[in-house]
Queue: 3 jobs
Job 1
Amino acid sequence: MEKQGYISEIKEHTGINVNRCYQCGKCSAGCAVTDEMDYPPSMVMRMLQTNDDENYKSVLQSESIWLCITCQNCVTRCPMQIDIPRLMDYMREQSLQKKMVSKKAKNIVSFHKSFLDPIRFTGRSYEIGLVAGYKMRTFNLLQDLNVAPSMFMKGKLPILPERIEGRKQIKEIFDKTKKEDK
Amino acid sequence: MKIGFYPGCSLKGTSSEYAQSTLALAKAFDIDLVEITDWNCCGATAAHNLNHELATALPARVLALAEKDGLKEIVVPCAACYNRLSVTQHELNENQDLKNRVEEILEMPLSGNLEILNVMQFIDRYIAGKIEGKVVKPFNHKVVCYYGCLLVRPHDVLKFDRLEDPQSMDILMKKIGADSMDWGYKTECCGAGFSVSRTDIVGKLSGKIVKDAYDRGAQAIIVACPMCQSNLDMRRPHINSYLKTKIDIPAMYITQAIGLAVGVSREDLGLKKLFVAPTFA
């Protein structure tokens, strides 16, 4: 009997069958961030095809899954139309839930979390709150201090957050869809 | 007929000139855009990177609110919001289980037949036919049109323009007198949501875009996405340090360029808010 591993889990949650990839490499060729990645997208695909738990772990611990910028170039050019960006989203979720996030991806993950924090309470994104949260998480305290005053002068940096009426509903959306611990 | 407007968070803050110029352009053609009541953030890159269900429910609330407002079509100038709203509506229409779950989370019904227009689709439908008669100051400059990722991909869902060599912005720019040139970076990624977390990557990817525009002799890069614009504009110091040179071609919104051509004031188009100022306007 075929081993039931993460390949079937991936298929169940995303509809993606990783076995369909025949390693043509077009995804890696068109990827904007390949040269920054530990494993280029086609290699991630190959590792997943092995249905080997060690390889799966390496993917979930990789920096690649966080560097994928979701530009959608890969799926656009894939001859098998494999939705790699959707797969990367799923890998990121799994990596978070299994607490396997690469240390090298700390800034990226901190940014995403800090982006969502204000939305949870106000319903809209809030630049100052986002940057403050990001700096607290990463200790990059001095970053972008030079650009803030000119943004403010150009009216691009509202001091107060926008707060919508349906804040309670937004908080419920966050609570009902919550998956991982902070 | 009422046309809905979803500004999204960027257009309320860091990219307020995009909202200003879109609304000013609409006004110049006597079109009233009505903001969706009590809209929320679409969740952007952060939500879909961390939690698929959240990334579906947030845009779904916006769609539900638009339907509740009785809107049939909404204009979404931000390419990232346009992408998230379109992909969400598509996913909900394709996946009944997900739709049931999201309706349960929101406690709001979704019919799923809103027309979601990006800024070019809006201009095409309501303005393009009347532009040439209204041009008072032809935009006679060499430009390159930068589409980025999220306006054209994924094509199966968005069904907007050609994938590898889109033309819609070029056609509009030619209508207002611009020399819209062929170039190699129309749909390459600018670094998108890495503006803060990996500014080095933005400097490199956006650097290549700005360099090609410069090499081809462009006087402006025309954009239709607030993320692309701020990466190409506000991150110019990082770009210039990556390129080890100083390139000062502005990255401006297509709504600003068309607005200038049809005689909207610099003030109403928010031109002062660009970091790299256009020298010709």
Job 2
Amino acid sequence: MSKIQRIVILGLILFAIVFPLISNNDYFIHVMTLSFIWMIGVYGLNLLAGYTGYLSLAHAGFFAIGAYSLGLLTVKAEMNFWPALLLSLFITGVLGFFVGLISLRTKEHFFAIYTLCVGYIIYLVIDKWDSLTEGVRGLIGIPAPANIGPLTFETLRSHYYLVLFFLLLVVLIMYRIVHSLSGRTYIAIRNSEDLAQTIGISTMKSKLTVFVISTVIAGLSGALYASFVRFIGPDIGSIAIVFDFLTYLLVGGLGTLSGPIVGTLLIVVLSQRLQFLQDYRMLVFGPVLTLLIIFYPRGIVGAVAAWGQKRRSSVHKTRLNNLPEEQVKEG
Amino acid sequence: MEILVQQLFNGLTIGSVYSLVALGLTLVYGILHIPNFAHGALYMMGGYITLTMMTKYGFHYWIAIIVSILVVGLLGVLMERFVFHPLREAPPIHDKIAAIGILLFLEAFAQFVWGAEYQSMPTPYGQVVEIFGLTFTMQRLLIVIAAIVVMILLTLFLKKTFTGSTIIAMSQNREGANLVGINTKKVAMLTFMISGGLAAIAASLSAPINLVFPGMGHLVILKAFVIIILGGMGSVPGAILGGYILGFSESLGATYISNDYKDIIAFVLLVIILSAKPTGLFSKGGH
């Protein structure tokens, strides 16, 4: 990490910490907290789709499993929030393990279609299993996180800090993973699974680890969502949520560390600006998604990084990175 | 016994619609090796265009369908030209995301233009006919017959005409087809045109017995994916057969197992198949 990057990151964290103190608009704090929750989920998807190259469309399902586990444990089993949170992460992880065990035998398109169907099954089960999940009526009255000693989480601002803490924790974990040997293993699998296997990487084990971590993070995001919004319905497991995650991730930058934050913030802020468009926002974001993947497959963060690299190389007059872009690809 | 026959006929009707949708999907997969997630949106557009042509411009049902085929076919061609063609060298994850972008756009577009409410499509074939003491609505009979005619025509086109064989040649080997002088770009466009047309036919035929709404393609496309995995990605007879298998198992499952969970049957079927054979049933080696 360069010095400038360090300063920027510290500045951003400081800003996130003082934001509720300088802003007295509760609505903004509410929106920020929600977008932090989305960011956590997007990080989960990013590790799998961005770094390992497996596009999972079941992540809304795992988000919903996390949310419903927490909701059911606290509302129906009347557990304390913290053990319930741990247990719901555990439940998501175990389910993720079994889904991963089977789904990761498939590749590419089959994997995407398989997970799409798994996601749909999770959604249908939540929707139809009235006696457990209350079906379309939704689960009401999920309590706020319980106190830890003198810390309470009843107010909006304290909840904001709780979610921020988890977000920073997830970013830190991601940073450590991506910059470790395992992180490079995952990227190797993304770039060529056959090659990775040839040089002795146990691809199945790595993929399964990534899948479980990624679902647990999605579950964490769901659990935080449930305790923040206090109400959950089957809709949170619908495919639309996965598409939202994908949009955030793609706009920010697939397979980049800061992508989920940039993309989510940008889209959430834009959506707030374009509130009158609410139902029709996909009229704008749909084509944006398609155009980005054609012209800037690594999103805003990727484009900025490439631009910075290009500038540096032209300053040093090496021009190594300026490969001819117009390569004739026929056939 | 009567219920059974009635349900078998229902299965035949649903199966015909599924087969038509799956055919379009499998053709595109055979040529370009992309799972076109936007295919369900094309299906939805087909339904809306037929509906608008009939209610707004007073066209006859059949003429409305033809207009719908042309418009949706053109949409397919535009998608190929502007989205999938530039992405042909990109990693496979990109095609899928691009297709999802188109899907989201088309759905928001339909909601913007036609509204979110459910609309029913009028049909000139609402009357009831009685055959061997069983009652059928004309529309359902029409779906079955029209679907079979379309499938026969498509098979003849693919097997007997020169243009049709270029599609098959390209699905067998893209480079090879290019080497023997087939214009692969044209064939890709043609395939998307046919695929869009098939989706429009399926939607226009089934809309009078279902409803037209922006999300009408969701379940159908998911099931079409199940079908082409069942029948082998890229296989034409597999798509037809798979469509009918799914149609029958759903209508029988709805009667004899549970109506609430009938939509889950397809996905459980798929999960079982892919768990046992990760590359799908009847898959050819090589891709």
Job 3
Amino acid sequence: MSFLLRRLGFYFTAFLIAISFNFLLPRMMPGDPIDALFAAAQGKMDPAQMDAVREMYGFMDGSIFEQYIAYIQSVFTLDLGPSVLMFPIDVTTVVGMSLPWTMFLALGSLIVSLILGVTIGTYASYRREGFFGQFVPPLLAFISNFPYIVTALLLFYFFGLQLEILPLAYTYDPSIDPGFTMEFIGSVAKHAVLPMGSMILVGIATWVFNMRNAMINVLGEDYVTMAEAKGLSSFRVMYRYAGRNAILPVATAIAMAIGFSFAGSIMTEVVFNYQGLGNILLKGIMARDYPLIQAILLILVSAVLTANFVADLLYVWLDPRISK
Amino acid sequence: MHSKKILASIVCGLLVSANGVMAEDIKQGGTLTVPIINTGFVENFNPYTSGGLFEGVLFEPLMVFNNMTGKVEYRLAESAEYSTDLKTITVKLRDNLNWSDGKPLTAKDVAFSFTMTKSAPAFDQKAIWSSGNLASVTATDAKTIVFTLNNADSTFIWGLPKYHILPEHVWGKVAAKDLPTFTNPNPVGSGPMTDIKYLKPQQMQLCRNTNYYLENRPYIDCITYRSYNDNSQVQPALMKGEIDWGSNFIADIENTFVAADPKNNHFWYPANDAIHLYVNTKEAPFDNLNVRKALSMALDRDEIVDIAAYGYPTTNFNAGGIGELYTPYISKEVTEKYKDITTFNPEKAEQLLDDAGLKDLNDDGFRQMPNGDKVEFDINVVNGWTDWIQVVQMVTEYYEEIGIKANVKTVDWAVYDKGLKESEYKMSINWSMVATNPIEAYQAYFLTEQIGKSWHAGHGVNSAEIDALVNSFGLTNDVAKQQAILDQLQEFTASNLPFIPLFSNATWYQYRTENLVGWPSKENPYVQPVWYDGGKRNLIINNLHLK
């Protein structure tokens, strides 16, 4: 129990530091939201109006310290104020619109690459002398070393622009009404293929190697030799005897991967004009929309910290020695 | 298949020419699809906070000042007149105006719409209240609105279309402090499209106002807005025929967009705001007029436009401070008289610099000040504005030819903006004002009170005399007298050269005639074809129809 309390204390401190950075980072960029607004208008707005507009957005009143106190309050009450980019709509509403799509993209690609990766890793380790074990893991390692943005742009170019078989933008065809219809679900799936595919291509190698390395250790254990000696089918040895034990370190790596997956989603969304958090974050940064940037970074921080906390809990459950 | 297409296009062609002859044959119906570059649509129909999405569409202006034809196009208003002392404007509304909910639109609504912005300064788009010149707006009867000014100002009226005419029975219920955050759900308007059919994050549709005051207008049924992230996504959408109207830069447009469907894909790039190199005349060696002249003569404007700006802008040879956007107001006399300043002539430029005492004393290829100090300066341009960066790059190359060392300096907007306003620059590229009348550009260039506020007044050429000349424009309503003032201002600008004219930006405008016709074009230039101006797009929406 005291272990958990210590961890909670640690996460709370980490959270406070992280949200302070969330506050500082956007303000360290040159220019403020009103400057950005006037820059975007390229002379179409009357400079005489600048002060009145600045006042309308309100949140920049007071010294930086007063702003900080107000910000901390807003984080704990979850009342994050109106967005500049989509004034006067609340940041919470804006984020609420796009968060589901990012979760769909980030978690969906994570789950798919996890399942595929673990399967491939298991098989590759078991057949590590053969063609599959020799060829597939290095190939995947090669692909995964491309940054998200490069893979995404390559897929965008070939499948979207050249072959024109998959859509280039949006989460679904804007002419379709959302709902539980085959048409809508099909459209969502079609629009998710490229962004999710690029994230899977990049993410999969991690799981292949995690699993493969853990498996190779386990495969040397006596009970595996024993199982093989008993004449069990290779499928049974591979998955029931070796695989189940090898998956433990993989489970704990998932926590880390959630954070990376969200980060990767941000890049991918921008390339495919996917209406998730990443897309909005980019626009928010360009518009110096402090409340929006803060809210999105807050979500990312919370996602990473929560995932790590869950991993800690998992450790305790898997290995009771830690809690002592 | 192929022959069918040809046949169809012949039939369509016949229909178009028939339309020209018999106006009553214009077909009703059809949908206009336009791209909107934003983060997605949200339920906010407040015209002052929704990023210009609805003006001219949901909300009809009183009138439109058409700077391409020089005419006033009356919309809700039927007339607007100044009193002889230029202190009162009387606006008369048309008969039988109604809101989209069926209630009558009266002078009271109009007076309310203006008075409302007094308590919401962020809505006071042209600072009519905060500048203190507007004393009151009153409805004297159901059709008449009277604006009373403290000081005579014939330019005041141009600001009126910036204010949206809103129903008092809806907006009158909103407390003043809530106005900026009011999202105006279930909007009531008087524009051509007031019926919100649907609103999804990536697309929304507005359909016709059945109470619109013009019979059979609009011809089209609906407008669809589609959301895009940036230019690069608008381009493929335009080529695939997803949208009908583009207002963005497209590289190599003849080969990418037009060639995809030469019959239906068109573009027209008339002149927009004039782009200048603003020079800080308070600093040596720019305090010497001949140096500024030399820096202007050193530039081959045709080449700059062709190479750095892809040939789309209009070269500006008018030294008088305004470009082809204001064609009817340009003084040909001034342009002719100062032609040598804007004509490429590096030999003359070098001679002027020699005469000014700027010579290469140490044989390093670059000129020095008479006392041996280095002459080297930065030209400010905004980070990421690639077309301008290329232009400035070319400018520095031309300067190198005449022995002047200049560098491209890309800075963030905030730095650039502050530099221009507080005249912390040696040379900086920037636009000039797009307005109803060029006097507004001169106000921004020269008025002493604009120093520190405008981007264009930091060059240091200011004086009480020139203030008086600029301000005298508003004291007369006589077009000939006003033109005389503009001529004097052009003469003053050309003879003092506080900035070096380069070219006029292009008005980016692509349109597709597969579905709709009636677009403004080179052959029928009835309005400057811009989407972002509520009044101008109102005229275009009213003119589009099925082919």
